[in-house]
Amino acid sequence: MHWSKKQERGTSLSLKITAFCLRYCPTWLIKIIAIIVVSYFYLTSPKEKAAIATYQQYLGSRLSPNPFLKRGSIFKQFMRFADAIQDRFLVRQGKITYEQLTIVDPDHIYQTIRQGTEGLKKGEILICSHLGNVEICRLLSTQQNFVLNILIHQKHAVKFNQAVYQEQGNINMIQVTELDMPTIIELSERVQRGEWVVIAGDRTPVLSEKVIELDFLGHRALFPQGPWILAGLLKTKVNMLFCIKKQHGYELQVSSLTPVIQWNHQNKEAVITEHAQKFIKALEEKCLEAPFDWFNFYSFWK
């Protein structure tokens, strides 16, 4: 089943209750509530458990020692996802702050970000994934004069995004099903104003056939062409963004993928394949770094 066909579980009321508990309940009570809620979803989500079991099988063969051999490894991954959701609310409430964020920036991209939107001649693209907790990057937009345009599927997790991102002036949630021409024109105008675009590189489009089949963790999987097509149309720099939770707090890892992507009708597929493979290699490395932080709870491989 395609990831977009999964129904959003939870109501607006339940999300408001979650936000209330995180704001006012003591830590020990929040942990108990989280275990109860995660246990319910764990027991009622056989397809999601099977998907995570497949991921752990493929990644575990590359890890020594293999942490997935321990009993309860799938439940632990469910709990990590719940922990990530809690942290998204805590960021919004100001309980996780910019000062708690460690930035790993080997290519000095953050220096560009610190200039703010007004100081940039042109915005850039950030390719993210559902590995780790990339939503923490919104801390950058609150600290700097820095506008993020985050592309999301228009029907997927709408209630959750509204609950987490409401009243965030420097973050634009652009809900799209396909990267059609009006959307591309709008994004081009935003990039020209110095705004940045965030798009996931691990979720295939809902309606089109614009996908590419490549090896990921030793097995064939489908990846979207959209990020690389968009990069070629916007003619701007492309970077990769990961955010992984460490013992000391979150580590935001940003690195350059390519100064520019150029393609034409003759070499389009080859260019897309080249850059998608670079992203997939980086994604595999991050899976090894944070093996329990893979949050694609659907059948990812063919």
Description of the molecule:
With 302 residues, this protein is of the alpha/beta class. The protein has one domain (8-289). It contains 11 helices and 9 strands. The chain has helices at 12-24, 27-43, 46-60, 73-92, 109-114, 116-119, 138-143, 158-165, 181-192, 226-234, 268-289, and strands spanning 101-104, 125-128, 148-153, 171-176, 196-200, 211-216, 219-224, 238-246, 249-258. Strands 1-9-8-2-5-3-4 form a 7-stranded mixed β-sheet. The longest helix is centred in the C-terminal third of the chain and has 22 residues, at 268-289. The N and C termini lie close together (11 Å).
Task: Break the fold down into its secondary structure elements and pairings.
Layout (H helix, E strand, L loop, with lengths): L11 H13 L2 H17 L2 H15 L12 H20 L8 E4 L4 H6 L1 H4 L5 E4 L9 H6 L4 E6 L4 H8 L5 E6 L4 H12 L3 E5 L10 E6 L2 E6 L1 H9 L3 E9 L2 E10 L9 H22 L13
Parallel strand pairs: 1-9, 2-5, 2-8, 3-4, 3-5
Antiparallel strand pairs: 6-7, 8-9
